[in-house]
Specification:
Elements (H helix, E strand, L loop, with lengths): L7 E5 L26 H14 L3 E5 L9 H10 L3 E6 L6 H10 L1 E7 L5 H8 L4 H13 L4 E7 L7 H11 L3 E6 L4 H5 L1 H4 L3 H18 L4 E5 L19 E4 L5 E2 L20 H7 L1 H4 L17 H4 L4 H8 L15 H8 L12
Parallel strand pairs: 1-2, 1-8, 2-3, 3-4, 4-5, 5-6, 6-7
Antiparallel strand pairs: 8-9
Helix pairs in contact: 1-2, 3-5
Length: 354
């Protein structure tokens, strides 16, 4: 199958992070600081990505503000003609830093928020973070940039959906993304503690619907339902190796941010192979392009061109083979593993990201 050029790149500049969120989807084994790409290597990655066709660059982590060279990398990506999005916890984002980053080319900021009230937010973040986020939101607005507030929903904050929407409005968000936890990396370890109850999900939906009506034209409210409680999988990444790529802090190039969980694949590193070659020719990017790799029931299913058989990472983690149908799908012979994971209604303490 001939691949099209990628549209976007998630550049995970570092895994270092001041927060300790139990729903973190980064790998269990984080990339240490001394294995992170250097400034020159990141500049080269950005240049290669633009030459490959990338137009949107998402600077993320961990916390991208932990990299001292962030302003230089922003300026470089902007100079190449990329749209630059900063994905941040907001800790360390002062008015001066935000103004400087905006001058250098950041055009949009995604700010994570953990809960509606400071006490609960700080417990979930494992740090005194909430009040800094309010200051960060003010700095983003003052810089004149559009703001998206990102909230990962789970059992410990799902009952606050209404109050979280109010908070996003108060922070001046243009967009609010309420996304239920995806169970990869550290989050999978905390699955039982994070899994929302059916009652929580049922209660949230009318709240979101009412908020969408009330805020129409002012704040876009996106609500992503919990994967495990759906009967149809999501079209993960709009297809494997179709539109996006991720570069991890050490230069490993991944078809999706969670692909590191698929230990049956070997992923190339941009320090050893050009990015264009990895995109078009590597075994990892070609593994699940098109439909040839699909097994039944996906192979003969009418929805295979709509959802691409769901998420390969989830299929690998829950069934042991990434070629299998995502077990979230009710047609999967492995769907029982998802039903079992949803079932327990007891509260379990979560393990903070160390
Ligand atoms: Fe999608 Fe495969 Fe399920 Fe069909 S069988 S709905 S293609 S995951």
């Amino acid at each position: 199958m001939t691949a099209s050029p990628p549209f976007g790149m998630l550049a995970e500049l570092t895994h270092r992070c001041p927060l300790h969120c139990p729903y973190c989807s980064n790998p269990l084994e984080l990339v240490r600081r001394d294995r992170e790409l250097t400034t020159d290597q990141w500049r080269s990655v950005l240049t290669q990505a633009r030459a490959l066709g990338v137009l949107q660059v998402h600077l993320s982590g961990g916390e991208p503000l932990a990299r001292r060279d962030l302003p230089e990398l922003v300026g470089h990506a902007h100079g190449l003609g990329c749209y630059v999005n900063l994905v941040t916890s907001g800790l360390g984002l002062t008015h001066e830093r935000m103004a400087d980053l905006a001058r250098r080319g950041v055009e949009h900021v995604q700010l994570s928020v953990q809960a509606a009230d400071e006490e609960r937010a700080d417990i979930i973040a494992g740090a005194r973070a909430a009040k800094h986020k309010k200051a960060a939101a003010a700095a983003i607005r003052e810089a004149g940039l559009p703001l998206t507030v990102n909230v990962v929903l789970h059992r410990r904050n799902h009952d606050q959906v209404g109050a979280i929407i109010d908070l996003a409005e108060e922070l001046g968000a243009d967009r609010l993304e309420l996304a239920n936890t995806q169970f990869y990396g550290w989050a999978l370890r905390n699955r039982a503690a994070l899994m929302p109850t059916r009652a929580q999900l049922d209660a949230a939906e009318p709240v979101v619907r009412a908020a969408r009506r009330r805020l129409a034209g002012r704040v876009e409210v996106v609500y992503v339902l919990a994967d495990y409680q759906d009967r149809l999988p999501k079209p993960c990444m709009h297809g494997w190796g179709a539109r996006q790529l991720t570069v991890a802090p050490d230069g490993t190039v991944l078809p999706c941010p969670s692909a590191h969980v698929i230990t049956s694949l070997e992923f190339d590193n941009v320090t050893e192979r050009p990015l264009a070659e990895i995109w078009y020719e590597s075994s990892s990017f070609n593994a699940y392009r098109g439909e040839e790799w699909m097994r039944e029931p996906c192979r003969s299913c009418d929805r295979r061109g709509v959802d691409f058989g769901g998420c390969r990472c989830q299929a690998f983690l829950l069934t042991g083979a990434a070629e299998n149908t995502d077990p979230v799908c009710a047609l999967s012979p492995h769907h029982g593993v998802v039903e079992q994971a949803v079932a327990p209604a007891v509260d379990v303490p979560f393990v903070m990201r160390g």
